[in-house]
Amino acid sequence: MSRETTYNFAAGPSALPTEVLQIAAAELLDYRSSGLSVMEMSHRSSLYQSIFDETKADFKALLNVPDDYEVLFLQGGASTQFSMIPLNLLGEGDCADYAVTGNFAKIAAKEAAKYGKINIAADTSECNHTRIPTQSELKLDPKAKYFYYCANNTIFGTEWHYIPETGSVPLVSDMSSDILTQPLDVRKFGIIFAGAQKNLAPAGVTVVVIRKDLAGHEQAITPLMLGYKLMIDKDSMYNTPPCYNIYMLGLVMKWLQKQGGLTAMDALRHEKSAMLYNYLDESRFFHGCAEKEARSFMNVTFNTGDADKDAAFCKAATAAGFVNVKGHRLVGGMRASIYNAVPVKAVKALVEFMKDYEVKNRV
Ligand SMILES: *Cc1c(COP(=O)(O)O)cnc(C)c1O
């Protein structure tokens, strides 16, 4: 196998743009004639600081982040935010609303319950998270400190196609698998966070966009490293940040700009997902797992309705170069993750392969 004959549909860590990897390779030993690899630089050096500043500025520009928000580059993955959010936002006797639309939101709600009162505003586990609740279904607590939801459910292949309306209650959203895939009105949110390994960079950096006034109210027991205020005051560099990953994130930001930014990504996600969903709707062999109205633009989940046939398809797909198409164990079947870096031609090739496979295997 080679990179040229491999189509990677991994859910995360996932495909990175080839151009980005080529630049990283070219700069690996000697970053722009500095004599150093980015991996070897002091995070306090002016050279590294310029990489950091440019990455942050480019991210802010792409997502159009207003100045009363801070962009943080943290560690611990998206999962550490499950603890950090309630520790920083909930005080004595405070309550938060959680919409449980998948496994990550479920873990987040369970974790938050250690630090405050949690109201389950919606829970779609009765249908194994094949759908997204409507606005009118949300049981909102007007006194909640925040409303938490996971914008794209990576495992189940569903995505919120609207931003919940919660009045003055700030929205907190896990956008690990759909950040920077469409233009977004950041002002509607209190906190947006994302682990990098789906749409941003290699695993190891977590991006947090936080409205600054939400920081500084952390519980007394909050571990030092989990306080937003400290990280804002120290510009994510209280300790050593994930330097190389931030550099990689910077390269992806430049690549995104070159592609035409988030408007271009928005068009691309429609184009790629439509290819797969249109075929799934006409197929008599494969079926989409999620309800049509809730379908994710990023993670397309499907199956044949028969676990043995699913396994046989995954095996054949892998042999043909379509790798990482096996679904998560909570859903079974298959999942094609088609993040920003997955090219149209990869999706086209997968659909052709599936069509051909259907003709040969449908009885
Ligand atoms: C992958 C993922 C996570 C977990 O991310 P880690 O960085 O591994 O902690 C959380 N939420 C969503 C939506 C994800 O896709």
Give structural attributes.
363 residues; seven-stranded mixed β-sheet; 9 helices; 14 strands; 16% strand
Radius of gyration: 21 Å
- Share in β-strands: 15-25%
- One letter per element, helices H and strands E, the order comes to EHHEHEHEEEEEEEHHHEEHEEH
Q: What level of helicity do the residues show?
A: 25-40%
C-alpha geometry: globular
Distance between the termini: 31 Å
Give your account of this protein's structure.
The chain has 9 helices and 14 strands. The two termini are 31 Å apart. α4 links the parallel β3 and β4 (117-123). It has helices at 18-27, 46-63, 77-89, 103-112, 228-233, 243-259, 261-282, 307-319, 344-361, and strands at 7-8, 69-74, 95-100, 117-123, 147-150, 152-153, 158-159, 171-174, 189-195, 206-211, 287-288, 299-303, 322-323, 334-337. The strands form 4 sheets. The chain has a 7-stranded mixed beta sheet with strand order 2-10-9-8-5-3-4, sandwiched between helices. It has a 3-stranded antiparallel beta sheet with strand order 11-12-14. A two-stranded parallel ribbon has the order 1-13. Helices cover 35% and strands 16% of the residues. With 363 residues, the protein is of the alpha/beta class. It binds pyridoxal-5'-phosphate.
